[in-house]
Fold this sequence. Notes:
This protein is α/β, with parallel strands linked by helices. It has three domains: 7-180, 3-Layer(aba) Sandwich (Alpha-D-Glucose-1,6-Bisphosphate, Chain A, domain 3); 185-410, Alpha-D-Glucose-1,6-Bisphosphate, Chain A, domain 3 (3-Layer(aba) Sandwich), CATH 3.40.120; 419-519, 2-Layer Sandwich (TATA-Binding Protein). 34% of the residues lie in helices and 19% in strands. The protein is built from 14 helices and 21 strands. The chain has helices at 19-23, 48-66, 85-98, 111-119, 154-164, 182-198, 223-229, 258-270, 299-309, 326-335, 347-359, 385-401, 431-448, 496-507, and strands at 26-27, 30-34, 74-79, 102-108, 127-131, 140-147, 150-151, 178-179, 212-215, 275-279, 286-290, 295-296, 317-320, 339-342, 366-368, 374-376, 418-425, 452-453, 461-466, 471-476, 484-491. The strands form four sheets. Strands 1, 2, 3, 4, 5, 6, 7 and 8 form an eight-stranded mixed sheet that branches. A five-stranded antiparallel sheet has the order 17-21-20-19-18, covered by helices on one side. The protein has a four-stranded mixed sheet with strand order 9-10-11-12, with helices on both faces. The radius of gyration is 24 Å and the shape is globular. Residues 2-14 have low confidence and may be disordered.
Amino acid sequence: MVTGWDEAKVRRITMSISKELMLKLQNGSDVxxxxxxxxxGQQVNLTGEAAxxxxxxxxxxxxxxxxxxxxxxxxxxxxxxxxxxxxxLSQVLQGLAVQxxxxxxxxxxxxxxxxxxxxxxxxxxxGSIMITASHLPYNRNGLKFFNADGGLEHADITDLLETAAxxxxxxxxxxxxxxxxxxxxxxxxxxxxxxxxxxxxxxDRPLAGLHIVVDAGNGAGGFFVRQVLEPLGADTAGxxxxxxxxxxxxxxxxxxxxxxxxxxxxxxxxHHADMGIIxxxxxxxxxxxxxxxxxxxRDAIIAMISAIIAPDYxxxxxxxxxxxxxKLTDFLENTLHLKHHRFKRGYKNVIxxxxxxxxxxxxxxxxxxxxGHGALSENYFLDDGAYLAxxxxxxxxxxRRGGKRIDTLIEKLPRQxxxxxxxxxxxxxxxxxxxxxxxxxxxxRARAAGYAVAPNSYEGVRLTFDSEQVQGWVLLRLSLxxxxxxxxxxxxxxxxxxxxxxxVRTLLDGxxxxxxxxxx
Length: 520
C-alpha cells in the first residue's frame, strides 16, 4: 500500500469505501465496474466516490514512483464515449487535485493516446488515466493507468485499490483545469508515420487513390477518419458510426463480435473499398476486412502484421495468445521464417512475455492476441489499434504502388473451416482446485487414448488431431478469475468441430460439476 500522503491537504466529504469493495473493482491490470444504472441486477459499484479515491491513490503512487512531491506531478485524464464518462472525469480530476497534483483534461481520447501523453514532448505528463471499459456494455466503465514505463501491472492496481480504501473522498475546484487537445496531437504523429513509411511522390497525401472504410462503433475512433485518413488523401466514403455515442446503438464496438465484423464487411463490400478497418471503443484493438469481404481478424490479423514486419526482423519471435491455430504456426515459421511462441491469453501476459524474451536476448518484435490487441517493440510495446492500422495502410499504399493488393501478404495462410469457443461453468466451491483436477484427468485420458498432446502448453491442455476421422485442435483451460473452463477448437473440414466435440465429451465424462450441456 502507498503511504506518506499529507492528510492536511485532503478536503474530506465523509465518504470512504471498504477494502473488500474496492478490490472487487480490479480486473487484471485495469479497474472496471458498473458505473450507471439501467441493467437489471447490476448495481453501481464504480461510483464517483470510488473514482475520486482511486485517482487520489494514483497520485500518491506516482509521487512515490517518481520521487516527486505530488504538487509537481502533471497527470492527463481522457475518456471514451461512454455515458458515465463526464461524471467520472469530474471525480478523477478532483481526486488528483485533492492530493495536490496538476490534472489535465484531455477530453475524448483513445487509450493509446493517453500513454503517448507521457511520451510526447508537448505534454510529457508524469502519468495518465484513461476512463474506459473497452467493449463492455454501456453501463460499465473503468480506469486504465500509465506512467513512463507503460501500463500499470496487476500488483500495482491492487496497491492502488488498497490505498484508496483508507482514504476519504475529497472535493477540489477544477474550474481552471487546463484542457489538452491530445487526440489531435496523437493523430498528427500517426500521419507523420504514414508519410515517412510510404514515401510517396506526393509526400503529404500518401494515401491518395486508396479507399478505406472505417467503423468506429460510436466509440472514440472517429478521429481516424477526419484527422488521419482524409488529410492524407484517402477516400473514406462509407465509413460509419464515427460519432461518439455511449449507448452504442449500432453494434458492440468489438472486433471479435460477429455483428460488428458483419457490419464493417458489408460497408466495405457495398462501397467497393480497398479495405475496411474496425476499432473497439477505446481504439487499443482493431481488425480489418479486405476488398472482397475477407476478414483479417484472429489468426489473419496476426499473420498480416507479422508479414509486414518480417523483413525488418528476420527470424524474430512472434508472441501470441494460446488460442492461435497450428496453421498460423506453419505460416509464421515456414512462410515468413519467423518463430511462433504461443503463450497465455491476456494482452498484458503476451506483452510482458515478449518484453521478457527481448531482455533475455531473444528478438521479439511483436506481441499480439487474436482479440486484436497488438503491441510492437518499435512502438513502446503499446497495444495500439490505430498504430496497427497505420502499419496496414503503409503496406496497402506500397502494394498499390507496385500494382498489387495487401491480400498477397497472407495468400499462403490456410483459412480454417470453422472455429468455436465454449465456456463451461463450474458449480460448487473452490473452482480452481476442481478445474485443475479436470485438466489433469483430461490430459491423462487423452494420452491413454493415443491423442497428441501439444508440448510446451503455457495454458491449459491442447490436443491436435490429424487423421482421416478428425482434423483440427482443441484447447481446454481454466479461467483465472471466474468459475468456468473455456474450450476452444478449430476444425479443418466440414463436420470436424462436431467430431472434436464428441472426443471432448468422452474425455470429460463424469465431471458433473462442469456444465457440458453446450457440447451436445
